[in-house]
Amino acid sequence: MKRILIIEDDVSILSGLKDVLTFKSYDVLTAEDGESGYAAAVEEKPDLIILDIMIPKMDGFTLCRKLRAEGNSTPVLMLTAKGEEPDKIQGLDIGADDYVTKPFSLPELLARVRVLLRRMPERAKKNLPDSIKIGDVSLNFKKYEAHKRDMVLNLSPKEFGILRFLASRMGEVVTRDKLLDEVWGYDLYPTTRTVDNHIAQLRIKIEKNPADPRYLVTVHGIGYKLELDKE
Amino acid sequence: MKRILIIEDDVSILSGLKDVLTFKSYDVLTAEDGESGYAAAVEEKPDLIILDIMIPKMDGFTLCRKLRAEGNSTPVLMLTAKGEEPDKIQGLDIGADDYVTKPFSLPELLARVRVLLRRMPERAKKNLPDSIKIGDVSLNFKKYEAHKRDMVLNLSPKEFGILRFLASRMGEVVTRDKLLDEVWGYDLYPTTRTVDNHIAQLRIKIEKNPADPRYLVTVHGIGYKLELDKE
DNA sequence: TCGAATCATTACAGAATTTTTACAAAATTA
DNA sequence: TAATTTTGTAAAAATTCTGTAATGATTCGA
């Protein structure tokens, strides 16, 4: 389920929006000022932020620019009041992805929300590689194809996800919880044993000797890591 | 420098817009009716088209639909006459990327122009061939024709759209949501199951054995992809 | 206005994947 | 070494995903 963070100090708008979006089966988070909104954006990693410009403590422009400056590319849908410091919108390229002018029509806002959420997946994969090679196994994440030498290797989405994330932190140990967070996502929390099972499956598929893994290495008490040059 | 084509018959709006956009360092082209506007869109390949609906010779809807039918994905910002929601919605249905209602506020228009241009790179990636061959089926996207061996193959617009988009990302997996976004468009949101049905229809039409597809391949848990050389 | 074509929804069976569970094996600790 | 914690993994159970047929809605053109 997609998560939407609304940052808006006008409580009537906030609760109205929240109700509608909740009814549309989105998971809604809220904040009523810029500072707590910023914190929520960073910590909760929503899939979309609906951001009013005129909010206490930190205005929407600043908030949005701050996120972008940090490389956060969560889609932002701005709520601007008509005649609200138009020069600012005009003069600054603040990095919002879309705008709605208050008072807005609900269908229009929903349409824009849908569009932004659909475009999302593109951006999400930040420093994740498109393809990697692990020993004689090569992976292509765009095609979702895996080959072992010339043979096609059948990997499940989770297996692809795990390898992709581990590859993005090549050589670093990653905890099971971190993997669940990144590969599974916020709203699903299987046990950490589930991770072990997937790792075991992966070893069968990509290691020469699954009982003595060279690439998918266990770090006892911590988690797993992907190594390419174990001697 | 980004090039913007304005198609608008109201000369006062046209020249006003042109001045502002030129001042903002865009390269501005203009046309005052649908036919010359269409020609300019095709020949000049602008980065963005600002398109009024009520224009002589060919209205904005038709023009936009015509471009999209040919696979032209230049972002289109519609100018809709002050008025009803239905107009707006329809504007987005036909493949426009955004719209502004007249009389519009300049800052808002500029903001939307920036947003659309920023989105561009994602779009531009489309390297759509004029025609492709899938097994013994050949498709011509320019002419909107499909043949199976010598026989004419009747494909619906959606079917064409799906194939065209998949072909533009040959070999890459595309999610159902992405397909809905690109083929169905802004304001339509059928369920993802709808995509499955169209894929099933397509398989019947282009695969030798629809139950074991060689070209229109499912990637379980992710989406579909078009492959040309599965052995 | 009617009919044909297209499109969307729904339902459900069968696949495929994911999660849980259980227990053995290994590593760590004291 | 014994106790404890952690990991590996097989197998069962649960869940999710896909294919597809049937049905209804919508659109478009004659």
How would you describe what is shown here?
2 copies of one chain form a homodimer. The first copy, chain A, has 231 residues and is α/β, with parallel strands linked by helices. Chain A folds into 2 domains: 3-125, 3-Layer(aba) Sandwich (Rossmann fold), CATH 3.40.50; 131-226, Arc Repressor Mutant, subunit A. Chain A is 41% helix and 22% strand. Chain A contains 9 helices and 12 strands. The first copy, chain A, has helices at residues 11-23, 34-44, 60-69, 86-91, 106-119, 121-124, 157-168, 176-184, 192-206, and strands at residues 3-7, 27-31, 48-52, 76-81, 98-102, 131-134, 137-140, 145-148, 151-153, 174-175, 216-219, 223-226. In chain A, the strands form 3 sheets. A 5-stranded parallel beta sheet of chain A has the order 2-1-3-4-5. Chain A has a 4-stranded antiparallel beta sheet with strand order 6-7-8-9, covered by helices on one side. A 3-stranded antiparallel beta sheet of chain A has the order 10-12-11. In chain A, strand 7 (137-140) and strand 8 (145-148) form a beta hairpin. In chain A, helix 7 crosses helix 8. The longest helix of chain A is centred in the C-terminal third of the chain and has 15 residues, at 192-206. Chains A and B meet through helix 4, strand 5 and helix 5 of A and helix 4, helix 5 and helix 7 of B. The first copy, chain A, binds a DNA duplex (30 and 30 nucleotides) through residues 156-158, 190-191, 193-194, 196-201, 203-204, 210-211, 218, 220-221.
